[in-house]
Amino acid sequence: MDKEKLRKLGYYAMIGLGTILITAFLVGQVIMPVIFAKPKSIMVPNVLGSDVGTAKKTLQEAGLYAVVKDSLWSDTAKIESVLEQRPAAGEMIKAEGTVYLVICKGSQMVAVPTVVGHNYEEAFVTLRSAGLRVAVADSMHSASFPRNTVMRTSPPSGSRVQKNALVSLYMSRGPEEVREDEEFGSTEDEYPPGTY
Length: 196
What we know:
By secondary structure, the chain is of the alpha/beta class. Among the domains are: 41-104, Trypsin Inhibitor V, Chain A, CATH 3.30.10.20; 109-172, Trypsin Inhibitor V, Chain A, CATH 3.30.10. The chain contains five helices and ten strands. The strands form four sheets. The chain has a three-stranded mixed sheet with strand order 2-5-3, covered by helices on one side. A three-stranded mixed sheet has the order 7-10-8, covered by helices on one side. The longest helix has 34 residues, at 3-36.
C-alpha cells in the first residue's frame, strides 16, 4: 500500500470519527434535553384566597416550592388563607423555584363576650380566652347582683375591639347592709358621747 492510499484512509477515518463525535454531542446536548428536560420556566398559578394547604399542593403540582413568609391580620379573609403571593400569579419562574406566601392569622378585632352576672373568676377566664385584658374598675353595692359578680363592662358586651384591648369590670359588693342604728336613727348624732 503506498503512502497516498494510507494518507487518504487516515483522512477518511478522521472525518468519520469527527462526524461520530459531533453527532454524539448534538444528541446529548441539544436533542435529548429538548425531548426529556423540564421546561425552563413555569407560569405561577394563582393561589390567592386558597387555604395554605391547598396553595402548597397547587404550587407543588406545578413544580414549585411554597414558603410562608409572613402572616397578617385581616377582618375579611378566612384564617390561614393566602393574602399575598410573590411572584404574583401569571409571572414566569424557573422550574423548582420558590413562591413566597403571606397568610391570614385571623381578625384583629374581637367581640367583647357577655360576662354580666358572672363571678370574677369566670369573667376573667372568658375575657382572657377571647384575647382581651381584664381590670376591675370599680365596685359598688347592688340589690340586683350578688356579691363578687359583674354588673357591667366597659366597653359593653358585643362591642368590637382590637385583640389585647382592656375590658374594665364593674363589680357588685352585694346589697348594702342596713345597721340598726341607721334604720332607727343614730343615737350618737342625737346624744354625743359623754353628754348622757
